[in-house]
C-alpha cells in the first residue's frame, strides 16, 4: 500500500519546533514506508495546488496530512483529495501544530511527539475505507412551538418569506401570556389591541394560508436532523371546527355544565363548552371533556342543537389524532410562567384571601377578566391599601437565584393603574433590588416614586416579610417586625420556564440550564440557537424577557431558518455512521435507547437492531454501548483506533 | 485394529466441574471411548506423570486442559502436555480466562496466603505456619509446588490451539467439540469452539424491550417476572456480554447469567463491555439543574447496589482481561525469560480487540517461588 505523508511547515509555526528531516528519517521505519512531502502552508492556494498535483502524480492509496487541527482544514484537504480523484475519507490528519509545536518547548521532544502521532496516523490510515456521502434536499419549512409573541412573530415572518409553517400551540388560543393582560409596560398599550394586527394576519392575512395553526396540540416525537425533521404532533379534540365556527357563543349559552375557568386564573366560571376568555382568538369555544355531562353518561346535545351554523360545526365524537409533518427547522417559543408563590412561606398565596400573584392581578385588571377590570377585595370593596411584594422567589438561593428582570416594571405599572383607578389607595412596594433598565422603564418608576401615596421599602430576605390576617380581619404585612395593613397583596414571583419545557427538552435533546430554561448554543454569540442544530430558541423559554425582546428573538430564529434552509438546497450526509453487524447482533435491544438521535430501530422479524444512516450522526455511543461488539463505527472502527494507539505507543 | 487416537483430560487449578461435565455426556461416553483412547485423566484414571513423560512428543491427539495455572506444578504440566499433544484445548473458563482462581490476582501472594493460613478466623494455626515451596521440618525438608505470583490462563504459559468456554462447558457442547475434532474439519487455530457466535440473549427466550434501567436489584430482593428480560428488571444479567451456546439454562431458571462463556468474538474484554453497556442504560433521572457533585452522587447511589465489581464483571475472565488484576504489587517480579519456548504466548490475535495492544502478558512470579528456569 502506497502511503503519502504531507508535512506542512506552516511557515515557522511547525518548522521551528519539529524537524521535517527527522520525520523523513523516521518514516522509513513506518509500515509500508510512506513517502514524505514537505510543504509550506498546504492550506494556501499555492499549497493546495501543489498538494493536489502531488496526489495526482504519486497516486497514493492513503494520505496523511501532518499540519494543523482538523477543525481548521480537514474539510479543505478533503476537498483537495476529491479534486485529485481520491475518496476524501482516505485522508487522516495529524494535528502537529496546536497539539505539538505550540505546546512543546523542547524541539527534540516536539519532534519525537510529532513522529509518534504521525506513526499512529499511518497505522490508522492503512485501515481506513472509502466512504460515500449521501445527498439530501433540505426541507425549507419550519415548525414553531408556542403561539405567544415570539412564536407568532416567527411564524408570520417565515410565512411572509414564502415558507410553510406548522404553528403548534398547547392552549386553545394564540397570543401567549400578554393577550390576557390589559395594559403593558412601559407605554401602557392595550395588550390585546397591540397584538391584534399580528394575530389577525396570522389567522386571516395574505400569508395565513402558509401557516397551519394547531391549537390544543403538542409535539410528541421528533426524528431526523437539521433540514429533515419528522415531527409527530398530537392534536387533542376541540370538538368545535375552527374552520366553520363563527364564535357566536350560542353553544356556551345552552351548555348545562359549569366549572372554574383556569384561563381566567380560576377567578370566574365557564361552561363545559366555552371560550377561554372574552375576545379570545381563534374566536371559537372548546369543550372540556371531563366537565361535559356526556362524560358522566348523559346523552346531552344542547350545544350541537344550539349551533346556528349547522350540525357539522360541533363534533362530539371527535377524538385525539397524531399527525406527522416534515420540516427543516424547529423554533421553540414555549414561553414562561410564574413561580408558584405558594412555595414561598409567609406570602399567604392560596391560604389567605386577597393575596394574588401578578398573573391573577393582571386578570383582575383586564376588562375581560372576572371583575371586568375593577380592583376589589374578596368582599367587593375597593382596597384602601395595597402591598406589592417584589422578588418573590427571585434572587433567592432557596428558590430561583436569578433576577427575572421584568417584575419591577410591571409592579410599577400596577402602581400606576391602581393609582389611576383608586387615587387615595396607599401602595407599598416591598423590594429586595430594583431593576428598571433601558430608555423607557424609568417613566413608570418615577411616577411611583413621586406618588405621595406610594412607599418603597427594601427588605433583605423574603423571610423578613410575612403576610398575615390581623385581628380585625384585614390583611397585614410585617416587614422586619413592623406591621402595615394591606387590603390587597400582590406578589411578583420569579419568571420560570412554562410547564412542559422539561418534556420538550427530553424529546428534542435540547439542553436546559440550571433554572430549566433552554440553553443557548452560546449566551452572547448564538443566543437564538439551541444546542441541537436546526432547533432555535425564541422568547421567554430561554430566559425571562419582555415582549420586545421576545419579538426580536422570534425574528432572530427566523433569520437562522431563512439563511440556512433555502428551498432546493442540498445537504450532504456524513458517511461516518454506525452500522449493525447482523451476524453478531443477538437482539438484546440495549442500543435503542442510548441513541440520542433515535436512529436505531428494532427489526422484530429478524430480531436485530438497525441503524438508519440518514439519522445517525456517527457519535459512537451505540458502538461503545453494544456489549456484543456488533456495532461498527465507520471511520472509527476498533481496529483503526487500536492501530493508531499502537502507532503512537510503539 | 489401528490404535485409537489418545485423549487426555487434565486439571490444573480447578474445581472438578469440568470433569463432571464430561461425565455428563452419559451414554455418549461410550462413543467417545469407541473413537478415542482416554489415557490420562487424574480424576478418573491412574496414569502417572511419568507415563506421560515417557510418551514421544505429539503422542496425544487431544488434551482437554481445564483449570487455571496457580502453581509451578500447573505450569510444568501445561508444558508437558503441550509438548506431548497435537491439539491442546483450553477447556472451560479457568483455562480460557482464569475464572474464579484468577480473582486472586486482586491481591498479592503474601496477602493471599496470610488470609488463607493465618488470619482466617476459622483457623487454628498458633505457629502461623504458612506453606512455602520448601519447608524445613525436624524430619527433613518437605516440598510443595510454589505459587505463581499471578494466576495465569493456559495461553499465557503455552500455545493453545482451541478454546472451549463455560464454567463448566455444557455437555452438549462438549459433544460438539469431540465431534468437530473427530471430523478433522477444524476451524482456524485459536478459534473458540463448542459455543455460538452471538450472545446469551440469542439463547434466552425472554421478551426484550428497549432498555432504561432505573435501579439495579439483586436476586434475593424479589421474584423476577419469568418472561421479561432480567436486565430490564434491574438484575445484573451478564447475558448481553456473554457468548451464546450454553442454551441459557440460568435465565431459564429465573437466575441472571453470570457470564461463564466469556465475551463473544469481537469483544476483547467482557467486564469492560458490560460496564460500558450498563453505563449507557443506567437511568439516574432528570439531571437538569444538578451540580456535577449531585450527579456523581446519584451515580454512586445507583452503583451502591453492586457489591462486588470484580466478582460480577470479571468472574470468569480476569486473567485474560485488559485489567489483568491489581497493578503494582511490590511482591511480584517479572519473569524473565518467559515461561515457555522462550516466549510468552499472548492470547491469539484473532480474539477481538487485542490487536495493536499485544503485550507481554503478566507472567509474574512471586519472589518466594523464584524464577522458573527453562
Structural class of chain A: alpha/beta
Count of strand segments of chain A = 34
Please name the CATH topology of the domain at 6-101 and 150-192 in chain B.
Rossmann fold
Following the backbone from N to C, one meets helices and strands of chain B in this order, namely EHHEHEEHEHHHEEEEHHHHHHEE
Strand percent estimate of chain B: 5-15%
The CATH class of the domain at 6-101 and 150-192 in chain B turns out to be Alpha Beta
Task: List the SSEs and their pairings.
The complex is a heterodimer of chains A (650) and B (374).
Chain A: E1 3-8, H1 20-27, E2 35-39, H2 45-58, E3 62-67, H3 70-83, E4 91-95, H4 107-125, E5 134-137, E6 142-145, H5 149-160, E7 165-168, E8 183-184, E9 189-190, H6 191-204, E10 211-214, E11 217-225, E12 228-235, H7 250-254, E13 258-260, E14 269-271, E15 273-274, E16 286-287, H8 302-306, E17 321-327, E18 329-332, E19 336-338, E20 355-357, H9 358-365, E21 385-392, H10 407-421, E22 426-431, H11 442-450, E23 454-458, E24 465-469, E25 475-479, E26 482-485, E27 488-493, E28 495-497, H12 501-508, E29 535-537, H13 547-564, E30 570-573, E31 578-580, H14 590-594, E32 600-603, E33 608-611, H15 621-625, E34 631-633, H16 638-649
Parallel strand pairs in A: 1-2, 1-3, 3-4, 6-7, 6-18, 7-10, 18-29, 20-27, 21-22, 21-27, 22-23
Antiparallel strand pairs in A: 5-30, 8-9, 11-12, 12-17, 13-14, 15-16, 19-28, 24-25, 25-26, 31-34, 32-33
Chain B: E1 6-11, H1 17-23, H2 28-35, E2 37-40, H3 49-54, E3 60-66, E4 69-71, H4 72-84, E5 85-91, H5 93-97, H6 99-102, H7 109-119, E6 134-137, E7 140-143, E8 147-152, E9 162-164, H8 171-183, H9 200-203, H10 249-252, H11 270-281, H12 292-303, H13 309-313, E10 332-333, E11 365-366
Parallel strand pairs in B: 1-2, 1-3, 3-5, 5-9
Antiparallel strand pairs in B: 4-8, 6-7, 10-11
